[in-house]
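@channel sequence for tomorrow's demo:
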Amino acid sequence: MRYVTIGLIQASHDVHGDEPVGVHKEAAVLKHVELVREAAARGAQIVCLQEIFYGPYFCSEQKTKWYDAAEPVPEGPTTRRFRELAKELGIVIVLPVYEREGIASYYNTAAVIDADGSYLGKYRKHHIPHVAAGGGSSGFWEKFYFKPGNTGYPVFDTAYAKIGVYICYDRHFPEGARLLGLNGAEIVFNPSATVAGTSEYLWKLEQPAHAVANGYYVGAVNRVGVEAPWNMGEFYGQSYLVDPRGTILSIGSRDSDEVVIGVMDRELIREVRDIWQFYRDRRPETYEAIMNL
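structure tokens (generated this afternoon):
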């Protein structure tokens, strides 16, 4: 099909961080199930949720409590539940979760579920930040929680389009974005959790640039609100779909739970790539030094 309707879900998380992990997950899953249903009712064929959607952005602190939020993928209860939902609604779901592999290996992961409920595979976040933010002791303390991804940059051939995933901090690194394009992605989703004062000036710059440089669509997703007790900063929403010309087609509000709907035109990908022959003109044989610098 030429046109594919995309749904991007941004949401606040209102449960106080001191509550048990199970309380967080139950509240967030219930909220997002309803938002996914809304997206499907509005015509979305591919739906992407925000980074680690089923809780707060707990990386604001460093506590082993949050290890209990991790689940196996795809065997865990959250992936199973959304596989059933995808099958019921006939939609593709990009499901960002906290993954546990084996006894105690942890990853920031997105499971990709096809429209018939089948599990297509996973992407594990490659680039793991560990930086202060918001003053005090808060920060993006992700190295405490996640190992670097080891699954490469897969592209998933879904019922509606070939999709790739790049998670939050990954978007600052053009190399993986290029690999996703070379692997055949028509749209790349970037589920995020990012706050004002740290990255907002880049939010509408980097990902349109990836879209243009690689001739694909990008679906950028960011949560909204301020999460207690950390109050690290405002998650500023503004989830958007951008096309291969760098035009933002649809964008969410700054502060509201919202389903952002946009339409991807697959013929535009061909048109742009025919004009800008970046893949033809690239010179990989001259880039070897990047591996050693």
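heads up for whoever presents: The longest helix spans residues 21-41.
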